[in-house]
Amino acid sequence: MLGRLAAVILLPFMLQAMPASAMVMEVVDNQLIMSGAVVSGDYFNITSLLDRNPQVDTVVVRNSPGGHAFTGFGIGAIIRARKLNTAVSGYCRSACSRIFLGGVERRFATDTPPGQTYVAFHGNYDDSGRLNISNIETLRKYVIDYSDGKADIELVKRWTVIPNTSGYIYFFDPHRLNRKDGISVFLCQGTEKKKYEDCEKIAGKTGFDVGVYTSTELVKPNK
After folding, report:
1. Other beta carbons less than 10 A from residue 51's beta carbon
2. Rg of the chain's alpha carbons, rounded to an integer?
3. pLDDT < 50 regions, the chain
4. Nearest of 214, 158, 209 to residue 188 by alpha carbon
5. Quick one: three-class SS letters along the chain?
6. Given its phi and psi angles, is residue 71 left (phi above 0), alpha (psi -120 to 50 degrees) or beta?
7. pLDDT number for residue 5
8. Which positions ≥6 away from 180 have C-beta within 8 Å?
9. CA 15 to chain CA mean position, Å
10. Angle of the 136-146 helix axis to the 4-14 helix axis, nearest 10
11. How far from the centroid of its chain's Cα atoms is residue 157's Cα?
């Protein structure tokens, strides 16, 4: 059964018509592979695909810049309600990160280099690119709940108020990235020229520690 937060997130989708989808979705055996920008119609398309393909147990998100925030929340809630796993192939930013957090097990895929494979979070923004203060608490609660309570609350408070839409907190695979300094989490304000050099390096924490990822076992995409 969906929790109270999931019900609040899903309600807007029940009240609007379905627009065209911008994400590319393809079922390959037990995987649903999704890529591209997130728009509200994607909620209905993924629900339909999952209904028609009960063998799917893993959603692979691949090279998505994000998009419609509440669609990301809604798809993440559907994934969690159906007890599916997620894997990240390439980059997964903004609304895509909400989708990724929906997985019961959340892992890295094998098909992209570790330095190009990450999940990135930031705040919610309006159409003009300004930080949407009214939705901050919804985002924070979602992250805390869907990280199974492991989220670093103080860190979440910091990245949910990044004022620049180009700013993100990046979570890489610490085991495969294998930097000498052990850093795999970078907090960027969006004004830095070089991500690895100029962004704030978050020491002593990995994506596994704060519940972004749940397993070091890698997932091989079916396509």
Report:
1. 9
2. 16
3. 1-2, 6-8, 11-19
4. 158
5. CCCHHHHHHHHHHHCCCCCCCCCEEEEECCEEEEECCECCHHHHHHHHHHHHCCCCCEEEEEEECCECHHHHHHHHHHHHHCCCEEEEEEEEECHHHHHHHCCCCEEEECCCCHHHCEEEECCCECCCCCECHHHHHHHHHHHHHHCCCCCCHHHHHHHCCCCCCCCEEEEECHHHHCCCCCCCEEEECCCCCCHHHHCEECCCCCCCCCCCCCCCCCECCCC
6. alpha
7. 53
8. none
9. 24
10. 120
11. 17
Q: Domains along the chain? A: 4-169 (3.90.226.10)
- Name the pTM for this structure: 0.90
The distance from CA 132 to its chain's CA centroid, rounded to whole angstroms, is 18
The answer to whether the beta carbons of residues 119 and 95 sit under 8 Å apart is no
N residues, the chain:
223
At CA 213, angle to CA 41 and CA 129, rounded to 5? 45
64 strand-pairing partners: 92
Task: Say how many C-beta atoms besides its own lie within 10 A of residue 206's C-beta.
Answer: 19
**Is-contact 112 219, C-beta < 8 A?**
no
CA distance 141 to 139: 6
For the chain, percent of residues with pLDDT exceeding 70: 91
List the Cα angle 144/136/59 in 5-degree steps.
Answer: 50
